[in-house]
Amino acid sequence: MTDKNVILTDDMFELLDDSEKNSEFIAIESKTFFRDTWDRFKKNKLALFGLIFLVLMVLGAIFVPMFSKYGYTTQNMQLRNALPSLEHPFGTDGLGQDILVRVMYGARISLSIGFVSALINLVIGVIYGGIAGYLGGKVDMVLMRIIDIIYSVPSVLYTLLILMVFGNNIFSMIVAISITSWIQMARQVRTQVMSLKEMEFAMAAKVLGAGHMRILLKHLVVNALGPIIVCLTMMVPNAIFTEAFLSMLGIGLDPLIPSWGALANDCRQLLFTYPIQIIWPIAAICLTILSLNFIGDGLGEALEAKR
């Protein structure tokens, strides 16, 4: 061996035991975006309570009227205005109808109006706000002025006009609620897209030859998904409250359609004689809206980018 060579012998090395081999190894569990969001969401106890209550309400709306032996129009004149019992957990109304079944059937109507209206607002708001924010300039100015014109007219006038033309049915109620509610979503999406389109990943996609529609939908809207979902969860309780408010005033859905607002309106005359009857639909409205607000707050914290 020459001087440049190093002679290696067994005495120069010392074997490590298994405990020392991984002493500097840090194991981090790999999580998807939705798994990471769920882990943060379930730490919020109020948000988790709201989600559980909403799931139970949806399941009750589906299965209680389906398996109950009482229909929502079944009358028993010999058992009118009965107090809660094992046979009728919520009691009966002035026509002997089971209030539990009618409240759960009303949940179908009110929740359907809330979720369908929110979905329509999501589609219109994302497309309208995304185009305005991405193109900017004169297009943005024109689209925003159109929104200002629509927003300047009270939404009650739109609602009354649509209900008068199309009648007091579920379709007309959804259209009446959606005709101006999408503006909030459009403004939210526009703000997010305007801030995201100047970032490096959007610029890189444009340089690589991606089309405008691909950049808008696959890059900008996806990265603005957090605020969009939070805004969406807030639209559902707004739609439910609007329908209930209009029905309680007698200008909403047809009285034969047992939504929560219509049920509360029917019990209003019995407020001082049988006040317990109005508690159930009002409690359903309040708890559902409160649960959706809790879910929205929880999603806002879970989807916050800084977290």
Structure description:
The protein has 307 residues and is an all-alpha fold. It has one domain: MetI-like (MetI-like fold, Orthogonal Bundle). Helix content is 67%, strand content 0%. It has helices spanning 18-21, 33-41, 45-67, 99-135, 137-152, 155-166, 170-196, 200-207, 212-223, 225-248, 260-267, 276-302. It is flat. The mean pLDDT is 82.
Structure, briefly:
This protein has 307 residues and is mainly alpha-helical. It has 12 helices and no strands.
Tally of structural domains: 1
- Percent of residues in helices comes to 55-70%
Here the CATH topology equals: MetI-like fold
How large is the count of helical segments? Answer: 12
Amino- and carboxy-terminal Cα gap: 60 Å
Structural class: mainly alpha
Largest sheet: none
Strand content: under 5%
**What would you give as the CATH superfamily?**
MetI-like
| Strand element count | 0
Mean pLDDT: 82
Can you tell me the residue ranges where pLDDT is under 50 for at least 5 consecutive residues?
none
The arrangement of helices and strands along the chain is HHHHHHHHHHHH
Any idea what the CATH architecture is?
Orthogonal Bundle
Shape: flat
Provide the gyration radius in Å.
28 Å
Q: What is the CATH class name?
A: Mainly Alpha
SSE blueprint:
Blueprint: H1 18-21, H2 33-41, H3 45-67, H4 99-135, H5 137-152, H6 155-166, H7 170-196, H8 200-207, H9 212-223, H10 225-248, H11 260-267, H12 276-302
Helix pairs in contact: 2-12, 3-4, 3-12, 4-5, 4-7, 4-9, 4-10, 4-12, 6-7, 7-9, 7-10, 8-9, 10-11, 10-12, 11-12
Quick tags:
MetI-like fold; 307 residues; 0% strand; mainly alpha; single chain
